[in-house]
Specification:
Helices cover about 30% and strands about 15% of the residues. The protein has one domain: SMI1/KNR4-like, CATH 3.40.1580.10. The chain has a four-stranded antiparallel beta sheet with strand order 1-2-3-4, with helices on one face. It has six helices and seven strands, in the order ααααβαβββαβββ. Helix 3 runs parallel beside helix 5.
Length: about 210
């Protein structure tokens, strides 16, 4: 049976509500369709379907580096407003032309020293590094990669899709442990090697 993004997110919310209510409270309500359309206009692209679907499920999380880190290891999901701000900020300092003409950066999954205009920020670690969805054409279109402020985009995608990312996170949350307690279970490690840990204060942390 194919897992949908809606299914994966429902699992994430259920686990957060049960084990990390403080983190669950940082999740915002859904974005408005008109606001998504405006953001696509500002960023001069049509978002991958999964990005639009995620925004209709929730508009990111509050930018709290303690309680809002839903994505491993240290990323806060960004909403529309911050997505546009990050895109504009990274583009303003990028050596890649606004039209994305650079031959070595035109295909999804290819290395990219600067910030390509068809990268969509979806996670922010607040230090300059991002999780991005690759909106460039190609077999890896829609994949999720790490963009480094120092190195740009290199290496293989962490997840092949936004749905795969949240499914991976859901499995980690469902097998996570409570901080300070003995747990002989076998936690699910995310694709980037993180295990979910819940604090006594109801906060999700990632152990890596």
């Amino acid at each position: 049976m194919t897992t949908t993004l809606t299914d994966a997110w429902a699992r994430v919310r259920a686990a957060l509500d049960t084990h990390a209510p403080s983190t669950a409270r940082t999740v915002r309500t859904s974005a408005a369709i008109d606001d998504i359309a405006e953001a696509q206009s500002v960023m001069r692209q049509t978002f991958p379907e999964a990005v639009r679907e995620q925004l209709l499920l929730f508009d990111g999380a509050e930018p709290d580096p303690v309680t809002g880190v839903l994505l491993p290891p240290l990323y806060i999901p960004v909403g529309l407003q911050r997505m546009q701000m990050l895109w504009q900020r990274k583009r303003s300092t990028s050596p890649i032309p606004a039209g994305g003409e650079a031959d070595d950066a035109a295909v999804a999954g290819e290395p990219c020293r600067g910030f390509h205009p068809l990268l969509v920020p979806i996670g922010d670690d607040t230090t300059g590094d991002l999780l991005v969805v690759d909106n460039r054409p190609g077999e890896l279109h829609g994949s999720v990669l790490t963009w480094s402020r120092d190195d740009g985009l290199f290496g293989t995608p962490t997840w092949r899709s936004v749905t795969e990312m949240w499914t991976d996170v859901a499995s980690a949350l469902e097998t996570g442990s409570t901080q300070g307690t003995a747990d002989d279970g076998d936690p699910h490690l995310t694709r980037n090697g993180c295990a979910a840990v819940f604090t006594a204060d109801g906060i999700l942390e990632w152990e890596f």
